[in-house]
């Protein structure tokens, strides 16, 4: 396939020669040989496929009648409400996961790291559902699974065994959840997770909502274990609200330790959270990824699957205004390392994931989040004239 006259990241027009599922050549516009399978990019701005580094595609009631928000606030309250109500709405389901993945495609997301609940109530059924949903879309979105203990680890006997089984059956990572406040045993939870990760050769992705020094203490425990287990590049902190709440000197100390240990970070940039020290994180090599979190689920009615809008939220939360900083926010939405891609982008050898938007430049695309005119996923057109093709 030939994708002609596109402007990667707002630069000079080029043609992309796509062979199978990857980009074979990038050549000046008009210089590629003619082919019957050609798409005119019309000089549109081209971005790589978005990478949703933190999602929960198993939890959604998308496609069902509106579900009103209920239950109690806070992590414990939301867990209890979800456990009490999910069966009523058929959560998890193949249909719900498929609906969310279709919205990802509509908005240009072509890869995601999704946390999938693993607990005594659903076992590994949610993982099977998500895999079936991805297959139903012919993997227009490449899905990487994190087996996630939403209801706790040590406090629910049998969950560790389920996490171990999920890792043995192909989950790329196992998750954790607030070791101090959910299990009330941060050392015990983390030691158990790292033991599985080392033995099964998988990653760890830990939800950490705890604030202040309690959160910082758990970051230090994670850094110690990441170094001891030589798991640099395979451990991620999700949310990590405490980092933005700490004094600058304490932030700098922790960021340096996280960077040296190879611990990464994912955020959904919620509106009332404290801004992250993103410049220091960037300088210290702490990779940052963006995600949508849950979408229309029993935790929150919000979300539409548009990662470009999440990037705009990150930019607004952190007060970004300069063109280079606005572009950086969009770069975070295309971070291929979070789905273990050695190469991701509009370059030769990368998976042919391309998003075309009608925008003057990248900052313009960020602040307006225009519709996705064309989306190519793995060399296949999945959105054309802003209409889903899958």
Identify low-pLDDT runs: none
| Proportion of strand residues | 15-25%
- Write the element-wise H/E pattern from the N-terminal end onward: EEEEEEHHEHEHEHEHEHHEHEHHEHEEE
The helix fraction, in percent, is 25-40%
Can you tell me about this structure?
By secondary structure, this protein is an alpha/beta fold. The strands form 2 sheets. Strands 1, 2, 3, 4, 5, 14, 15, 16 and 17 form a 9-stranded mixed sheet that branches. Strands 6-7-8-9-10-11-12-13 form an 8-stranded parallel sheet. It has 12 helices and 17 strands.
Describe how the helices and strands are arranged.
Elements: E1 2-8, E2 14-19, E3 22-28, E4 38-40, E5 45-48, E6 50-55, H1 74-85, H2 94-106, E7 109-117, H3 125-136, E8 142-148, H4 159-168, E9 173-177, H5 186-200, E10 203-208, H6 212-228, E11 235-239, H7 242-245, H8 248-261, E12 263-267, H9 278-284, E13 288-290, H10 307-317, H11 323-332, E14 354-357, H12 362-368, E15 374-377, E16 380-384, E17 387-388
Parallel strand pairs: 1-4, 1-5, 6-7, 7-8, 8-9, 9-10, 10-11, 11-12, 12-13
Antiparallel strand pairs: 1-2, 2-3, 5-14, 14-15, 15-16, 16-17
Give a quick summary of the entry:
With 390 residues, this protein is α/β, with parallel strands linked by helices. The protein has helices spanning 74-85, 94-106, 125-136, 159-168, 186-200, 212-228, 242-245, 248-261, 278-284, 307-317, 323-332, 362-368, and strands at 2-8, 14-19, 22-28, 38-40, 45-48, 50-55, 109-117, 142-148, 173-177, 203-208, 235-239, 263-267, 288-290, 354-357, 374-377, 380-384, 387-388.
């Amino acid at each position: 396939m030939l994708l002609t006259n596109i402007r990667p990241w707002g630069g000079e027009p080029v043609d992309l020669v796509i062979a199978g599922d990857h980009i074979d050549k990038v050549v000046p516009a008009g210089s590629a040989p003619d082919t019957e399978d050609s798409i005119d990019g019309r000089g549109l701005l081209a971005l790589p496929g978005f990478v949703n580094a933190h999602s929960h595609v198993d939890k959604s009631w998308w496609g069902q009648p509106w579900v009103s928000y209920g239950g109690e606030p806070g992590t414990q309250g939301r867990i209890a409400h979800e456990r009490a109500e999910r069966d009523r709405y058929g959560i998890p389901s193949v249909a719900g996961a498929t609906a969310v993945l279709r919205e990802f495609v509509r908005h240009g997301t072509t890869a995601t790291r999704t946390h999938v609940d693993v607990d005594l109530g659903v076992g590994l059924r949610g993982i099977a559902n998500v895999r079936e949903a991805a297959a139903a879309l012919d993997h227009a979105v490449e899905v990487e699974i994190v087996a996630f203990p939403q209801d706790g680890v040590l406090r629910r006997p049998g969950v560790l065994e389920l996490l171990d089984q999920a890792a043995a059956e192909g989950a790329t990572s196992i998750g954790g959840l607030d070791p101090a406040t959910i299990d009330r045993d941060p050392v015990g939870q983390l030691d158990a997770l790292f033991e599985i990760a080392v033995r099964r050769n998988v990653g760890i992705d830990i939800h950490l909502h705890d604030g202040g020094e309690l959160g910082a203490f758990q970051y230090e425990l994670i850094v110690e274990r990441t170094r001891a287990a030589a798991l640099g590049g395979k451990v991620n902190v999700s949310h990590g609200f405490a980092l933005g709440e700490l004094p600058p000197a304490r932030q700098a100390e922790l960021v340096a330790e996280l960077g040296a240990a190879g611990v990464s970070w994912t955020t959904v940039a919620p509106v009332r959270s404290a801004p992250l020290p993103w410049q220091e994180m960037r300088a210290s090599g702490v990779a940052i990824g963006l995600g949508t979190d849950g979408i229309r689920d029993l935790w929150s009615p919000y979300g539409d699957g548009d990662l470009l809008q999440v990037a705009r939220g990150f930019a607004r939360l952190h007060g970004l205004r300069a063109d280079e900083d606005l572009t950086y926010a969009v770069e975070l939405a295309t971070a291929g390392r979070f789905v273990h891609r050695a190469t991701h982008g509009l370059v030769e050898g990368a998976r042919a994931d391309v998003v075309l938007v009608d925008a003057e430049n990248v900052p313009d695309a960020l602040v307006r989040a225009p519709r996705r005119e064309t989306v190519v996923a793995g060399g296949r057109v999945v959105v054309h004239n802003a209409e889903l093709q899958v």
